[in-house]
Design brief:
mainly alpha; 17 helices; about 450 residues
């Protein structure tokens, strides 16, 4: 375990963010390279993989449900130096992740055809999406135990091991993807299915490797078969923190589904442009997302150690870092959005759609960065409901008006992008109000003792 309750807060944030950023750079680099190769298969392939990728938001939602609770409670136990409690929570989270993986696999494969038909603009796009998902759904199921293991290590302040495992497995994925997609050296091109198979192979490698960090004699968290059996009290604690965070990501999946539905009448080019724009944002948001992953365990250990002043310092320093990074990113997207989209497609209609999306949404980057930091602070404090409420408000004032606007005869997708941008700032305002309330409730003054999470 690494102690995050002593030493400069900013140093801990930078160090942990650095580890997370390296891991995310390789992960996002894979996504972009994968999209680059798939883009050579045509617009239908890009749109199909983008539609298939929307299930990733469901995986993220369920992964948040599992990982956030594990990171928060294990970081609190680590801050108290309670190894027995941390180990118990880790094994309970593993059991919960395995049950979730099995349910996702069964439901995902059963609903595969209905999903691809409903979301695709044409038959070619539906075929590409199905060919990808047949292999990608098992890969996504394995993400649940992998995510819990990584979250548990983060809760103990250990970021290096997940970074190394992820980096190596993603590198293997990047090397394998074009071989399977185009049949290099084998003479058997698999198309979009090859991209998904390479993902499955790399995730199997990552799960097997990361598991070894919980079996050695020096492991602070260890697998214990008897402790994996469900304990309802522990599951309630994990889900009490994780479910609101999971629902928050689920609402993002709902937003993506609504956007693809609204874009469907405009054809595959509009869907592909939005998909590429989302991938570009995922790539460029890496620093602030990495910072968010760092904030939760750093603040969480200090919550467990009952160090109110250091908890407040984590938010202050993280907010400054996020705002600075997102201002730079906003300027970069305004200058080079067109070129960013052109990296992945030569179709003028797709480039035009993706560029328009990026240029409008870039006005929300600073607000989005602050939302990430605020959400992580809610996780560290052990109460993720306020963050869920802020996201729910945004979805309510975004999705309903967007559906109503779509009935207008002159409706354009740019109306949705403008509405989306405005609602992010509303979400941030509510987040800050609720976070201030949570600080007062749980921290009091900077010198006051912490209020127990259940109080």
């Amino acid at each position: 375990m690494k102690d995050l309750t002593t030493g400069p807060v900013s140093r801990h944030l930078l160090a942990t963010t650095g580890f997370m950023l390296v891991m995310m750079v390789f992960q996002t680099l894979y996504f972009l390279i994968d999209l680059y190769w798939v883009g050579r298969l045509g617009t239908a392939a890009v749109a199909g993989v983008s539609i298939a990728g929307q299930l990733s938001f469901i995986v993220l939602a369920l992964g948040q449900m599992l990982g956030v609770g594990a990171t928060t409670l294990i970081s609190h136990a680590s801050g108290r130096r309670d190894a027995a409690e941390a180990g118990h929570l880790f094994n309970q989270a593993i059991g919960l992740s395995l049950a979730t993986a099995l349910a996702f696999l069964v439901i995902g494969l059963a609903g595969l055809d209905a999903y691809t038909r409903a979301m695709s603009a044409d038959a070619a796009t539906a075929a590409a999406a199905r060919g990808y998902l047949v292999w990608f759904i098992p890969a996504m199921a394995l993400q649940f135990p992998l995510g819990v293991m990584s979250a548990a290590l983060r809760g103990t302040g250990q970021f290096r091991a997940p970074m190394i495992v992820s980096t190596v497995s993603v590198t293997a994925n990047m090397a394998l993807a074009p071989v399977l997609i185009f049949g290099w050296g084998t003479g058997r091109p698999l198309g979009v299915a090859g991209a998904a198979i390479s993902s499955l192979v790399s995730i199997v490698l990552a799960v097997a490797w990361l598991s070894t960090h919980f079996t050695g004699p020096g492991a602070w968290l260890r697998f214990a078969q008897a402790d994996v059996r469900p304990r309802l009290a522990a599951w309630r604690r994990l889900l009490g923190i994780g479910l609101p965070a999971g629902f928050e990501f689920a609402m993002m999946a709902l937003y993506q589904a609504v956007v693809y539905t609204l874009a469907r009448p405009f054809g595959a080019a509009e869907q592909a442009g939005f998909g590429i724009g989302m991938r570009v944002i995922q790539a460029t948001f890496m620093p602030v997302v990495a910072l968010g992953f760092a904030v939760a365990p750093v603040a969480g250990q200090n919550v467990g150690a009952r160090l109110a002043g250091r908890v407040r310092a984590v938010f202050r320093d993280a907010a400054l870092m996020a705002t600075t990074a997102m201002l730079v990113l906003t300027a970069a997207v305004h200058l080079w959005a067109h070129g960013m989209v052109q990296l992945f497609t030569a179709d003028p209609a797709v480039v035009r759609a993706g560029t328009m999306y990026l240029q409008i949404i870039s006005w929300t980057f600073v607000a989005s960065g602050m939302v990430f930091v605020s959400s992580s602070m809610f996780q560290a404090l052990g109460n993720t409901i306020p963050s869920l409420l802020a996201s729910a408000l945004r979805m309510a004032i975004l999705i309903v008006p967007a559906l109503l606007l779509s009935r207008h005869p002159d409706f354009r997708m740019t109306w949705v992008w403008i509405l989306s941008a405005a609602t992010v700032w509303v979400q941030l305002g509510l987040c800050l109000v609720l976070l201030r309330r949570e600080f007062t409730r749980r921290l009091g003054t900077a010198a006051a003792p912490l209020v127990p999470a259940g109080a």
